[in-house]
Design goal:
114 residues, mainly alpha, two-stranded antiparallel ribbon
Amino acid sequence: MPGDLRTAYLAMRREGAGDFSPAALEYLFRLVQRVSFQGKGHRDLSPTELCAHFARSTAEDFGDFTADALRGFGITAGADLGRAVFLLARQGCLELRDGEQQDEYAAYGAFPGA
C-alpha cells in the first residue's frame, strides 16, 4: 500500500472507524487513477461515473466472489464509496471536484451483487 494510503488508513483508525480495509482503499485509489487518466492528464469523475466504474470493475475483477470482496472492503453501496473517497481526499490522496458532496454517491444505491 502506498504511503499516502497507509496514512489515510491509520487516520481512519485513529478516528475510531474501521469502515474500510487497507485493500479497499488501495483498490479504490488505483481504480480512480486508472479510469481518470486520459492521455497526458487526469479528468474529473462524477460520483455517478465513479460508482459505475467501481461496480463494473469489482464485477470483472472478482466475478462470483464480488459480494465477498465488497463486504470485505466495507463498500457495498455508493454511500460507502463516497465515505471512502472523502477519507482519501482528507488525507491528500485524491482531489474532490468543486462542490462535490457525499450524498451524490449515496444516490447510486447498493452495488450489484452486494
